Amino acid sequence: MIRILHYLILCGCSFAVLSGLSAAQAPDAIPSAARGLELASKGRCREALPLLKKAAPTIADKQIKYRTGMAMARCAMSLEQTQTAVEALLTLNREFPHDAEVLYISTHFYSELASRSSQELAATAPNSSQAQKLEAEAFESQGNWEKAAAQYHQIIEHDPQVPEIHYRLGRIFLSTNPPQPEEAKKQFEQELKVDSTSASSEFMLGEIARQSGQWNEAIAHFSRASQLDQGFVEAYLALGMSLNSAEKFSEAVSPLEAYVKVQPGDPAGHYQLATAYARTGRKPEADRQIALQHETAAKSPRSDQH
């Protein structure tokens, strides 16, 4: 990966280094940027980086700012100056959102940073729950549920109080073919004994109950999930849906209003809220939500109303 980054530096900085340097820039920025870009294009990053860092804050011209920022990021990566590289990439992503080259370089750098961190974790604390969890997550990403579960069980055997492990085992039981909801339920309940603030476990218990038509149980779990994590917007939708299914329409209004306020582009939220409004005699509001449901569904035709 380091070789790739060096290649990016040498290729990416060979653009017309001195072209476009305007006299409108701060006097010190012009020679610093020009010299820094020239050095970077030759792979002399150790000399270039201080000059680029000095020039960058005072450059007004967008094209020159872009070139300087890219050279800073690449040189900092090459020199393994992580903080400088991150700062340069954050600035580039803020100043030039959606730029393909910025996103490409960011992807390479953060991937390399993650790889280094995982290697350091494996080397310095190979038997830690964090290292074992990272390995289990890798198995999960491959769909290898058996190996992932075995790794999580090893963590529990060593320390039953490590948070998130029972939750992850529960997710695995729901991912197998066929799913095993009863086994998953046991794991989510066990997770709540380890961590009573696990909003995700409450939510998953609610989903298991909702999918089996146990509305009151689902409502209780979704209510707790939304209370434990007020930013957990999916819990508001699931709560509203369960209340509608239980024909508790007046109670469904509040969580569904909260959901559509945060997720106005989801047709499912508007549909569910329209149902709650209609069944509580609020026809004008229901009609408005139906219109919004059609409008948002047209933009995402594959959406359903759950």
Task: Characterise the protein shown here.
The chain is flat. Helix 3 (45-55) runs antiparallel to helix 4, helix 11 packs antiparallel against helix 12 and helix 14 packs antiparallel against helix 15. It has a domain at 2-123: Serine Threonine Protein Phosphatase 5, Tetratricopeptide repeat, CATH 1.25.40. The chain contains 16 helices and no strands. The protein has 306 residues and is mostly helical. It has helices at residues 2-12, 29-41, 45-55, 62-78, 82-95, 100-124, 129-141, 145-158, 165-175, 181-194, 199-211, 215-228, 233-245, 249-262, 267-278, 283-299.
Characteristic key phrases:
306 residues, mainly alpha, Serine Threonine Protein Phosphatase 5, Tetratricopeptide repeat, 0% strand, flat, disordered N terminus
Q: Provide mean pLDDT, rounded.
A: 90
Q: What's the story with the biggest beta sheet?
A: none
Q: Rg to the nearest angstrom?
A: 27 Å
* Helix coverage percent: over 70%
Low-confidence stretches: 1-26
Which strand-content bin applies to the residues?
under 5%
CATH fold category name of the domain at 2-123 = Serine Threonine Protein Phosphatase 5, Tetratricopeptide repeat
**What would CATH call the class of the domain at 2-123?**
Mainly Alpha
* Quaternary assembly: single chain
* CATH architectural arrangement of the domain at 2-123: Alpha Horseshoe
Shape: flat
Task: Give a count of the beta strands, DSSP E runs of length 2 or more.
Answer: 0
By secondary-structure content and strand pairing, the structural class works out as: mainly alpha
Give the gist of this structure.
The chain has helices spanning 2-12, 29-41, 45-55, 62-78, 82-95, 100-124, 129-141, 145-158, 165-175, 181-194, 199-211, 215-228, 233-245, 249-262, 267-278, 283-299.
